[in-house]
Structures are given as structure tokens and as C-alpha cells.
Amino acid sequence: MSMFWTIWISVITLGLIIGCYFLLRWCLSNKTGVAEGESMGHEFDGIEELNNQLPRWWTIMFYMTIVWGFIYLALYPGLGAYEGIWGWKSSNQNIQSLEESAQARIDAKEQGYLVEYDRELDFAAEKFDPIFEAYAQVPVEELAKDPEANKVGQRLFLQNCSQCHGSDARGQNGGFPNLTDNDWLYGGSGAKIVETLTLGRKAAMPAWLDAMGEDGIEEVVNYVLSLSGRDVDPQLAEAGKARFAACAACHGMDGKGNQALGAPNLTDNIWLYGGSHRAVTETLTYGRNGVMPSFKKTLGDDKIHVVAAYVYSLSND
């Protein structure tokens, strides 16, 4: 924070506290011209106002709050760039990556700062890491049958995965797969789900417009849609079958896909980006390059194991 804003905040904050002190002193002085304890000449519904001092207990408490205000501002950050005597922080600021966050935690401890967020992380690690370590010793398929482990996995899923896959894990068009239907691009075994969460995935469906042209893409679209029993132009579909040889390297000659490559099955009418004529045309024209991020640094191996068990349970009830 710049010196200007430090001075600005300090003047306003200290000025208000000092102003409260002088306001209290003014209220304690008798400037009414009426002796203390005498009537102020106001009466309403039988109640008469007397010129009495503020209650002593209330006055003392007011002084105490003023003193506490100065003590608080001395101990904790609150006056611009001033960091406080105790070096307390709510969190490490200006962090832009997990690596920077980890380094900031180390630096804060070395410099003796009391970072509240770091303390909460340490407390959570001490309390919960043994639980996750115990879960990690159980195979994913077996852990998926543990109701308590699934509750933990569900909470982690909602925090980290629901933004793309939805809170019900049913995904949405646009490259976010449904995790409940047992249709998997890379395989749905416990080990494969762990692998996906750990390493992430990056699609590599190329654009075919330059290679096939618009007419060629139209032919392949008709053939691809015919694989799932859709009504298409038979002549275009037959022409597209010959062109499909270029696609078979990933999807197979029968169009049933290849989990080793993440190439989807084109015969089951389950579509990641939509199965309409327009959507399939768009896929072939522009390609698809969706990204599933790696959660290794975010969650760590033990928590990934628990999330994998929860995801596995969704399609293996």
C-alpha cells in the first residue's frame, strides 16, 4: 500500500477515535446553564428530564473502548501499510499460484508472522491428515462402499469439481462429462479415475476443415450420426464412411472409441459436446481441446483417493 493511502487511513482512523474522546469530554461538561440534578424544564407523560451526568459505569466503558482501540491498532494491522507489533495477518497477500502460496507460508514462519489462514491450514492438517491417510490405504473400489468416506469425498467434490461437472456430477454440454452414467473416455476403474484426477486430461481432437472441406465434413457428420442409429442421408453417409478412415486412428473402424487415447465411443448416442447435426459439424470443423486440470497440487494424493472413491460410487451403486 502506498504512503498516501497509509496516511489517509491513519488520519481518518485515529481522528475518529480521538474525536470520540473529545465528544465524550464535551458530553461530560455542563453547558446547559442548569445546575446538576435540576429540571431541564421538559416533561412528557409525567416524566421530567433532569440535568444529570452520564452514568459513571457507561463513561468508564466508553473510555475503555477508546483505550482498546489504540491498543488494537498497535498490535494488529489496520493503519495502511503498518503491520502491527504482533505481525498478525489474515492471509498471505498477492498470491497468484500454489507455488507462491507454499513459499509465502515458509517465509511467514521464518519471519515470525502470525498468519491466521496458515494456522487454520496447520490445524486442519493435524486433525484430518491421519483420516485421509487411513482412507488412502483402502482400494478405491472398496472405499467407495464406505458411507462416511463418500460423505467426505462428496464435500471435496463439491468444493473442487462441481463448478464443471455440477453438484449432481451429471455434467453439461460443452465438454464436461456426466460422471454417473458409466460412460468413460479414459476408463472408469478406480485406478483410472485416480490417474485422471492426478494428472489431468487434455483433449486433442483436431480440426478437419482444411483436410476435408465443408462437403467432406458434411459427409462424415452423416456417417457418424448413422453409427448411433440416427436418420441421415444414406448417400452422404456412405461417402462419409470412406472418409471416416482418417478418424478411425483414434475412434476405431467401428467408431467405438479408444479409452487409451480418450477417444469417445460414437455409437452410443452419448455426446460430450452435443450430438445434434450442428454440434457434430462444429466438432469436426473446429476440433475440441477441452482441459481437465490436475488436482495433485490442490488436493494431494490422499484426498484424490477419497474423491476418486466417491466418483466411482456414483456409477457403481
TrEMBL record:
Q: How is the cofactor bound?
A: Binds 2 heme C groups per subunit.
Where mainly found? membrane
Q: Where in the cell is it found?
A: Cell inner membrane
Q: Which InterPro entries match?
A: CcoP_N (IPR032858), CcoP_N_sf (IPR038414), Cyt_c-like_dom (IPR009056), Cyt_c-like_dom_sf (IPR036909), Cyt_C_IC (IPR008168), Cyt_c_oxidase_cbb3_su3 (IPR004678), Cytochrome_c_Oxidase_Subunit (IPR050597)
Q: Which cofactor does it need?
A: heme c
Q: In which pathway does it act?
A: Energy metabolism; oxidative phosphorylation
User: Which processes are annotated in GO (biological process)?
Assistant: oxidative phosphorylation; proton transmembrane transport
The record lists heme c 2 as bound by 205, 247, 250-251
- Membrane spanning residue stretches: 7-24, 60-79
One GO MF term: iron ion binding
Record keywords: Metal-binding included?
yes
Residue span, Cytochrome c domain: 148-228, 235-315
Kindly list the GO CC terms recorded for this protein.
plasma membrane
- Keywords, in A-Z order: Cell inner membrane, Cell membrane, Electron transport, Heme, Hydrogen ion transport, Ion transport, Iron, Membrane, Metal-binding, Oxidoreductase, Repeat, Respiratory chain, Transmembrane, Transmembrane helix, Transport
**For heme c 1, which residues are the binding ones?**
161, 164-165, 292
Family (UniProt): Belongs to the CcoP / FixP family.
Q: What functional role does this protein have?
A: C-type cytochrome. Part of the cbb3-type cytochrome c oxidase complex.
How it assembles, according to the record, is: Component of the cbb3-type cytochrome c oxidase.
Q: What is this protein called?
A: Cbb3-type cytochrome c oxidase subunit
